[in-house]
């Protein structure tokens, strides 16, 4: 068995199942190892039959989100609950024939509580379930008349069950047709078949930081033998994620530092530079921070080495115009430039924005849109134009870096919302032209110490100022009871000509999850609001064309209320929207909520952010209050960390930050620092990992870069 073989080469996986695995992003045997469980279940504690009625009653109230789940778990649709009942067999099991199959049943009774257990097509159980013996029955139990009913329970001896109770059972993110058992069986097969005993991490580093071995970590992240083992597995794998990320970034830096800048940009002193002309005629004045950043960039473009710069600026600080003005600089100097956005919606918005700017200032610059949803013909046309115009500006998604996208004369590459891209994407862009200048833009509110670690390969410019005259967004955290008042408020804002976003955590109704979904919510809102108000929904499962259309209509105010998942979290700019209402706000990370809030407050009018906390939990309330106190991303991230403390690893992740599957740069900041120190020590010794003792690391990094997933799709 090889890590790089296709998942279809495994036993028991036919073409259909293979396709299902592809749908969840698992292509190779190695991929499934990295398909970590979302969560873990524990075997439910043994419950005496007499206590079942009380248990069923309380199960419905269980709103506890912090996992692992140790309580009986209520199923969404019926009232059944998974339980383990210990009971003695008092009567011989009864086998009867029903519709061409044999049904075995056992009647249990304890005090006055009765239960019937049934199994289909397993008549031989009669020999196992001997009278007088004790067993534990695990299955879903549901009330039926005056008694209870359980179908196909699993049977254990009490000793066996007790020995299994320490284990945690993986819960994977599922897809229709691909169940929990299929995924865990496949993982099991891979863990048994692959030889994971060779650890790429030097023994010395493992010992120094008390990190588990690789094979132990892999086994226990999927099938933890105890909570402690899981913690150890996570620690090791999070360290690995950070270590590999920093090493690959560091190696990239090495490569880039050798590249001399042989582009020939027009001198800054020259008269009639377009960048200056547009800057002077904008309807607003650039902030000092924007000006400073732009100067730093333009100096780099004319420097001795190619630029490697990060522009960090909070949401709304005006990064787009800085990118445009830099690209303008390239265009006038006769070079191509490219802007890469993480979503189609955002790419489209940038393209339209640039088109308007070019028209308004009478700039004759060929603009080319390049996204995944273009038809083959449109794509071909785009490629042709890229060959034709040596000073084109190309705007797009990761389609920009696909093989056939051939640039002719690329001098500058800008990536927007960089945290959404992996190191891999950055690398492939560098390779497009003859090593273009690279500018990455990010709104990720990370403290400087972490930024230096994560972006160690880049120079940093900070836009630490938001345009004046803008009113801070007014925020409030309310309970479910305030929903109607919120709708009234929404109506008032719309009556003033403004627009609103409503964010829900889910795309559609989901079994076992009590959270609002955009599909049903949009319908509900249509009823609540008057018929003249156009409500639409949008989410990541929609086709790109449809998403773009909805965004365009929203931008033109043909839609007043947009009910959406967090697809709109990054970058979307509709200044006329003044209300951001977030359902189940407690389910989101604070950094993410801050990004969402950043979608409003972009115009002249006062904007509002209404966060609905649907729990009674004090902790959730306290967390959300942090957002109330501040509009500053850095402050929010720091407070969030303080409140949660490290080790809260089943809490809400600051999702969307970087490409880490397990690691969270805030929660695991300590591991991040350790990994960074070790990675740099190695890089210092051996800049290109050429030494023989680093061969295993070098191979691992190669593999790591190869499996970087494309783009986070919400
Ligand atoms: P972000 O940094 O979040 O990407 P954008 O670039 O989308 O922010 O800018 C947000 C809004 O602010 C846009 O509508 C843009 O036109 C406007 N803007 C940018 N710079 C300034 C400025 N100096 N003064 C006023 N408005 C500005
Ligand atoms: Mg932006």
Would you kindly provide a written description of the structure presented here, covering whatever features stand out?
- β13 (about 365-370), α14 (about 375-390) and β14 (about 395) form a beta-alpha-beta unit.
- By secondary structure, this protein is of the alpha/beta class.
- The protein has 24 helices and 23 strands.
- Strands 2, 3, 4, 5, 6, 7, 8 and 9 form an eight-stranded mixed beta sheet that branches. Strands 13-14-12-15-16-11-17 form a seven-stranded parallel beta sheet, with helices on both faces.
- It folds into four domains: about 1-40 and about 165-195, no CATH class; about 45-165, OB fold (Dihydrolipoamide Acetyltransferase, E2P), CATH 2.40.50; about 260-465, Rossmann fold; about 475-630, 3-Layer(aba) Sandwich (Rossmann fold).
- Adenosine-5'-diphosphate (ADP) binds near residues 313 and 316.
Based on the structure given, which CATH architecture of the largest domain is correct?
A: 3-Layer(aba) Sandwich
Number of H- or I-type helical stretches = 24
Determine the mean pLDDT: 85
Which overall shape is indicated by the principal axes computed on the Cα atoms? globular
CATH fold annotation of the largest domain: Rossmann fold
The count of DSSP E runs of length 2 or more, i.e. the number of strands, is 23
Helix content: 25-40%
**How large is the share of residues in beta strands?**
15-25%
Highest CATH level, the class of the largest domain: Alpha Beta
- N- to C-terminal separation? 33 Å
Secondary structure category: alpha/beta
- Specify the CATH homologous superfamily of the largest domain: P-loop containing nucleotide triphosphate hydrolases
Ligands bound to this protein structure: adenosine-5'-diphosphate, magnesium ion
Q: pLDDT below 50 for ≥5 consecutive residues: which ranges?
A: 61-78, 646-656, 709-714
Number of spatially distinct domains: 4
The radius of gyration is 29 Å
Q: What can be said about the biggest beta sheet?
A: 8 strands, mixed
